[in-house]
Amino acid sequence: MRPQSSPYSIELPTQTRTAIHLPASKSISNRALIINALAGNREMPCNLSDCDDTNVMLRAFEQMDTPHSTINIGAAGTAMRFTTALLSATKGHHFITGSDRMKQRPIGVLVEALRSLGARIKYVHNEGYPPLDIEGCTLQGGTISISGNVSSQYISALLMIAPTLQGGLTLELKGNIISRPYIDLTLTMMRQFGAHAEWTSEHTIHVEEGPYRKMVYEVENDWSAASYWFEMVALSGDKEARISLSHLQQQSAQGDSVVRHIFSHLGVESTFIGNSLTLVKGGEPVKHFEYDFVNCPDLVQTVVVTCCLLGITFRFTGLQSLKIKETDRIEALKNELRKWGYVLTDSNDSILAWDGTRCEEAANTAIDTYDDHRMAMAFAPAAAIRGRVVINHPEVVSKSYPHFWEEFFMVSTQG
Fold first, then answer.
1. For 5-62, where are the E strands, in sequence order?
2. Is the pTM of this model over 0.90?
3. Residues 356-375 pLDDT 10s
4. Which of 91, 162, 233, 324 gives the lowest tally of CB atoms within 10 Å of its CB?
5. How far is it, in rounded angstroms, from Cα 27 to Cα 235?
């Protein structure tokens, strides 16, 4: 059962006992595809994500073989950034575009960095934003500086093409570095494919010139997707709630694996048996929670909704990247939770807080998703407490977790 564009009304059972087959990691899949292509490997990595973001990259690779092709990335921000770097370093002339929202998401930092390496990139309409006209060529390496507090996807895009650059690349990151685990994930995967890539200081990464090796690569399941099932257990009224999650690694390179630590404060205990993780009710949740999400911004919506529904006041920092995601996630959270009577405040474009202030609920409490997959999935488990939740445009989950509603429906019917 996969809902389309009509609103989806959700109700949950009193019992929560199920096993969930998580999707493969979107973050790992997209990196594996880029590195695999740079290695000249025609054999695809195993267990790739079947989400929209990965599928658009697969289509992009097919279109790259056609001269002067137009590559439409849709709403996939990761694909836009990674593919822009790949096209710049691969011979051929291409036009890359995306959805209306994508055309509003900045890419100037990455383009200027690539241009400094010799890339031939032109803005088609607005300076600093897609669409882009790219003529691929051999790029020169060297030393470049880039702000560390921009999207880590810019940094990962540069790192992945670095072994193909003449002389390699030294990347100096200025200021505070956000989403460092995503950078570390990129470096880990590059080394798995044979690259020599290391942090040489707290703010400097060096990548040597040299070919990637061809290899069979298997993608781990997605810790970001796991977060919604942690939320389900946290909000469930079933004291014996139990959900098992498949094919996760205890020592995962995915930054969002920190969800285990975060939800240990919110009443969820998690235990590994092999590569299966079991979630159960743990101790009492904290009364107030403070956390810096600079390294795991994709968990914010899940944790914010969980805290509000459990009555846990909070102050969350490190949210600066949320304003340039699929939507302005800070504003979206404030708007939608206010419908349920929760008054959140924000400051400095990077802090979101709730001090317990409530207001009257809106008459229409259907949750808008803003073309953002994580809004739909973060609000769905709230049905465990509210009894019924209506999600507008539930189909947006296909961006990262196409089978989310099938899994969610299975929980509903197994209760």
1. 8-10, 17-20
2. no
3. 999 999 987 899 999 999 99
4. 91
5. 27
Would you tell me how many other CB atoms lie within 10 Å of the CB of residue 286? Answer: 16
pLDDT digit string, tens, across residues 68-79:
889 999 988 899
What six digits make up the tokens of 162?
């670095």
- Written as six digits, the tokens of 283 are 């101790």
Q: Which residues of 291-307 are buried (b: 16+ CB within 10 A; e: fewer)?
A: bebbbbbbbbbbbbbbb
Handedness of CA 280, 283, 289, 293 (dihedral sign): negative
Going from the C-alpha of 228 to that of each of 78, 239, 264, 306, the distances in angstroms are 21, 18, 14, 10
Residue of 377, 369, 272 whose CA lies nearest to 75: 369
Active site residue 298: yes
> Of 53, 222, 298, 368, which is the active-site residue?
298
Identify the residue whose tokens are 């011979």. 91
Residue 413 has pLDDT above 70, yes or no: no
Return the bridge partners of 145, or none: 172
pLDDT higher than 70, residue 316: yes
Q: Which of 285, 287, 286, 321 is nearest to 301 (CA)?
A: 321
142: left (phi over 0), alpha (psi -120 to 50) or beta: left
Phi, psi of 70 (to 5 degrees): -105, 120
Q: Is there a contact between 367 and 393 (Cβ–Cβ < 8 Å)?
A: no
Residue 289 structure tokens: 């929670």
Q: Find out whether 307 and 291 touch, Cβ atoms under 8 Å.
A: no
Q: What is the Cα–Cα distance from 356 to 288, expressed in whole angstroms? A: 10
For 85, counting Cβ atoms within 10 Å of its Cβ (0-12 exposed, 13-18 middle, 19+ buried), the class is buried
